[in-house]
Amino acid sequence: MASNNNKRILYAVLREDFVSFAQKVFPIYDGSEKFVLNDMFKILADYAQRIYNDDELKRLIVNLPPRSGKSFLFSVALPAFILGKDPSAQILCISQTQDLAKVFSAACIKIMQSDIYKKLFPNTVLEKSTEIDLRTTKGGLRHAASVGSGITGFGAKYIIIDDPIDASNITSGKKRENVNDWYNDTILSRLNNKITGKIIIVMQRLHEKDLTSHLIKQNCWEHLVLPAIAVKDECFKLSTGETITRKAGDVLNPEREPLDVLNVIKSSVNNFVFAAQYQQCPVPEKGNIIDFDKFQYCDFPYEQIRDKNCISVQSWDIALKSGKRNDYTVGINAIIHNKIIYITDIFRKKVNIENLEEEIINYNKSHHCQNLIIEESAGSQLLINKLKELNIWNSIIPYRPTESKIERADNIYFNIVNGNVKLLRGAYWLEDFKEEINSFPNGLHDDMVDALTQLVLSLEDIIPKVNMADVVKELTKIRKSEANEHSPEFRFWYRRNYGT
Predict the structure, then answer these.
(1) Which residue of 38, 67, 282, 426 has the smallest Cβ count within 10 Å?
(2) Are 287 and 438 in contact (CB under 8 A)?
(3) Which fold has domain 292-462?
């Protein structure tokens, strides 16, 4: 009796809890591998279950490294679970190739024909199955297709897209565009109900202009990113109430890819591949004109050095529109002391032209900035004139670049390597700044790079020029026969006023 009761409890859990169901059927999918229920699997399974249970979650993108079990979870186990719960559900599963689509379809059929599945879901009965189709007696469907293939005539409540482009094709702009256009032209039209229908995209990042990048600009997507090595502390609150914490430096899948294995992989592939496929942070292969690792850091905030004979400055690169495809307006707040630039904060926001003046003024108030550098153009000239009329800053320096973006970045690299540009350690904006620096010049945005280059290249316009009359006056005041440009008194005075 006790044994039967335990079995009923177990079956009840397997019917309701997707992570338990997936763990149970994994040996049917792959009997050669030992299943390990780690934190990564719990997080993924929880999001998969939410797709079924949560009416508010309709669009989900999951980015994680290759060989993480995502295809089993989302292309095989999840369709079987959904059809078990709802035998009338219609699911469209799209894989990279038709061969993969058939493999995952066969695996799903195998699970649904197993004894354990029939005991868990006796109301779900397969009516017929082929290499690409399985249908239930209640009208349910799992149709397998490949990216770009014709799916006319098939509608679904759930659409699951698994790794839509092969890594070998990702450098082809045409093939990336084909995938993005295929999604735009085909996928949305396949939902039976555009309001309640759900789409899941599970993929490793391969390029900064891949399908994830194409879609994530839309506000409707929930985005789960799981890099192989955590870059920051993260906390995941599961729907069960369990909390999973990842600390910066933690590996995602320690049983299969511990840190030493990942370090070997990292050393054997180029930075572009590892950053994209393993860290889910793609940067252009031909980027890195400025090496972010060459920046030095400082630990003190503005308040601790503002009264130490420093010069405060903000460098603004403005965008005139705030649409999704437009650039950011960026303001870099910095302090100059002894000809060293200390970057203490970065403003980065999409701002309409009519709100730019207010945003710049408010940002200045929060940092008490003395000087303003702003790129001069036909679109910004009116704004510059209005800012000058306010008499808030000691100086407003219009900046008109005469060289290309790449040439400007090259010209400031010497300053960075020599420690003349320092970043505030632990600042909230460092990750975004690093990503843009490393992806320049082929990144999606270069606004922070533009603001940085004009800041460094305008240094001579900001630091006061030596007034020889002041020098003579100061030397006379010292009243020492040895007082000359080589004396300690003069060197101290000059360093105090004009830097080293």
Answers:
(1) 426
(2) yes
(3) Nucleotidyltransferase; domain 5 (3.30.420)
